Amino acid sequence: MSKVVTGIGVIFTLYGLGLNMISNLNLGVLLTLALGIFILLIGLFWRKIGKLTSRGIGKILRNAVIVLLCLEFALVGFLAFYSQSDNVDYAEDAVVVLGAGIRGDRVMIPLKLRLEKAIEYHEKNPEALIVVTGGQGFQETVTEAYAMEKYLLEHGVEPSVIVKEELAASTNENMRFSREILDEKFGTEEYEIVVITNNFHIYRAVSIAKAEGFTEISHLHAGLQWYNLVPCYLRESLAVLKMWVFD
């Protein structure tokens, strides 16, 4: 058993290192790497850990870790299930596309998938405004909103429907600043938005949109590459717990 666990730890450690090479360094990548090292250490010290956790405080700690892992799997399952329940009717007044990491000024795949969904939506409802929201972060030479606007224009979206929000540095700010822009655009008129983001992020994005004052909200999820599933869901599960406890 120790060899199996050690092998899994090696795979996850290499996986985390590989993610760092192909994507921007973020909490999800660090958590994946930390998970790999944690599993690797368990495998390497399997017998010693078994003895330490067979009774007393060690056994309590072992059972606590097992319970926490089960809760983590349940939370990830909930987030994945929620994301599949798209409820757009393609009659919304505005689309809010949340930014994600870019490299330099190049759109990375998670953000590209969000933008492809926005283009798909635009083809069915060309009158809706499209708010692209995201500031400039680490390893980025332009704002995410600028890169998003450029991508949409290159793929045939009319510039008249695109609105940039270039200051946001978090999902809360994405929603807060987007609402300020749309309130100004629509005035006292009620309007409905559709939130577009990757599947792992849908639940929190919609929850934050409600907290920031949007009242008529639907959502449309974009997919995610298989190799980004672990870091994204690990990071998102912590963000959701933070939101539930502190926000």
In summary, what is this structure?
The protein has 9 helices and 7 strands; from the N terminus they run H-H-H-H-E-E-E-H-E-H-E-H-E-H-E-H. It is α/β, with parallel strands linked by helices and 247 residues long.
Q: Can you walk me through this structure?
A:
This protein is of the alpha/beta class. Helix content is 59%, strand content 12%. The protein has 9 helices and 7 strands, in the order ααααβββαβαβαβαβα. The strands form 2 sheets. Strands 5-4-1-6-7 form a 5-stranded parallel sheet. Helix 6 (144-154) links the parallel strand 4 (129-133) and strand 5 (162-165). The longest helix has 28 residues, at 56-83. The chain is elongated. The chain starts with a helix and ends with a helix.
List keywords for this structure.
alpha/beta; five-stranded parallel β-sheet; two-stranded antiparallel sheet; elongated
The order of strands across the largest sheet is 5-4-1-6-7
Mean pLDDT over all positions:
93
Looking at how many chains there are and whether they match, the oligomeric state comes to single chain
Structural class: alpha/beta
Q: Globular, elongated, flat, extended or rod-shaped: what is the shape?
A: elongated
Strand runs, count: 7
Distance between the termini: 42 Å
Estimated share of beta-strand residues: 5-15%
The helicity comes to 55-70%
Uncertain regions spanning at least 5 consecutive residues: none
Order of helices and strands: HHHHEEEHEHEHEHEH
| Radius of gyration from the alpha-carbon trace, in angstroms | 21 Å
**Number of helical stretches of at least 4 residues:** 9
Give the biggest sheet.
Answer: 5 strands, parallel
